[in-house]
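May I ask for a single protein's sequence together with how it folds?
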Amino acid sequence: VKDPSHLTDDEKNQVKNNVDNANKDKFPAGTDVTVGDDGTTTVNYPDGSKDTIPGDQLVQGQKGDTTDAGNITPTVPGDKVTVKDPSHLTDDEKNQVKNNVDNANKDKFPAGTDVTVG
């Protein structure tokens, strides 16, 4: 969903349908499922009893809500670059470090990832 704390009517209907479909052979006839703004779902049974399912068990934010940096832990290259002055790398040394990091993570980094060496 776009915003897990404020579901749209379409998103609420999707959650309701998912709960209904997952329990189609379990719910007695006349069972009513309602979905709140945060996805919290209440199952009201014909006998007056009810169950509540917390929204965080049924909905999650879209993938765009998480960052690549939060999902990827870069691999530190095994080969260290030998430099003259570790406090002041030359441009060639920086490029060598950058290439080592890029190569060590070529299967991890998404397209467009930029590695910068300070």
